[in-house]
Amino acid sequence: MQGYTLPAASTVHNLMRRHDLLPGGPSPAPTVGRFEHDAPNQLWQMDFKGHFPFAEGRCHPLTLLDDHSRFSLCLAHCPDERRVTVQSQLVAVFERYGLPERMTMDNGAPWGDTTGSWTALELWLMRQGIRVGHSRPYHPQTQGKLERFHRSLKAELLQGRWFTHAAQLQEVFDAWREIYNLERPHEALSMAVPASRYQPSSRQYNGNPAAAEYDEGSWSGKWMSVEN
Question: Of 12, 39, 145, 210, which residue has the fewest beta carbons closer than 10 angstroms?
Answer without folding.
Answer: 210
